[in-house]
Amino acid sequence: MSTLRLVPGTPDAVLSALTAVLDGSGTPFAPVPTDQAAAARVKQAAAPDQPLEDDCAVVLTTSGSSGEPKGVLLSREALLASAKATHDRLGGPGQWLLPMKPYYVGGLQILTRSVLAGLEPVILQESFTEAAASMTGVRRYTAMVPTQLARYLETDLDALRSFDAIVIGGAATPAPLKERAAAAGVTAIPAYGMTETGSGCVYAGEPLDGTSIALDDGRILIKGTTLFSGYRLRPELTAEVLQDGWFRTQDRGHLTGGRLEVVGRVDDVVISGGVNVTLPSVQSRLLEHPRVKDAVVLGVPDEEWGTRVVAFVVGEPGRDELRDFVAEALPRTWAPRDVVRLDALPMLASGKIDRQRLLEGVR
């Protein structure tokens, strides 16, 4: 078995280590964030002092937005398969702009695609518009999380329009945001995937080449060439989610005409006062309110209700107004019992909402 080395999670360091791994001259590595707390989680999950499992080029640590971070083993073949399938779907190789952290899978795969295309990636420093203007590739791509897209639609619209495609991942893209981007002439493509699938493997509802989708009682199963090899030093957990070549995700969805629609996580349906409440539906309804800029809805353990539905909202409306607004379209029993107004939702470096931080504030 080979050993694992830790490399700084900066774009230059990760690109250098990744290039060497992809051409066969380097050794497996794990990128480490500069933030001390995040670095400690990575080192714990990556366990560099322990023998490394076979079929691994990179170990990435999941963000831990809803649970314990895990070390995900990604092979050279999986990384390259994901990059090639992305280029095939988008219309061919191109130059990529990196506006994300390279120690999460979305950022790492921007670098992998750049290596595969043989073109230097452009690293976002401060100005998105200036970074976009410096690109020289015939085809121009980038990837970002929904929060970034929403921000750049307000501040850097012309730069967004200059890209042949912008892949949106890391979190579900709200329907109003999709509509805003389309109306503005921005080619934004929602992607579904995760670290375990080597980044996005379903674009605009359609699996990339080499990826198959199935459902098991509503749970999304994924099979294909981009899948991870397992969890670092967690064979029992690997066996739970990798079965007969299929990865059992924690997400629910349905297929219509071969197109996948993700409707939430397996644990996104909670029982509150004896009533099943679908949290993503409540969240989607809140985001339709004209004075709600952002929102997330979570279930909080409660002695009286079993689970209390709590909405964390960026916007002006108060609790009663939002409860009435939800009840206009959904059962009144689904309306959030508490509404916490915030200036902004706390985010992890991966671009996902820090659910654990929100829950800690209301328990």
UniProtKB/TrEMBL annotation:
It holds the Pfam family AMP-binding. Residues 34-206 form the AMP-dependent synthetase/ligase domain. Gene3D superfamilies: 3.30.300.30, N-terminal domain of ligase-like. Keywords: Ligase. Residues 282-352 form the AMP-binding enzyme C-terminal domain. One of its GO terms (molecular function) is acid-thiol ligase activity. The keyword Ligase applies. InterPro entries: AMP-bd_C, AMP-bd_C_sf, AMP-binding_CS, AMP-dep_synth/lig_dom, ANL_N_sf, ATP-dep_AMP-bd_enzyme. Coiled coil: none annotated. NCBIfam families: PRK07824.1. PANTHER family: LONG-CHAIN-FATTY-ACID--COA LIGASE (PTHR43767), NONRIBOSOMAL PEPTIDE SYNTHASE PES1 (EUROFUNG)-RELATED (PTHR43767:SF1). This is O-succinylbenzoic acid--CoA ligase.
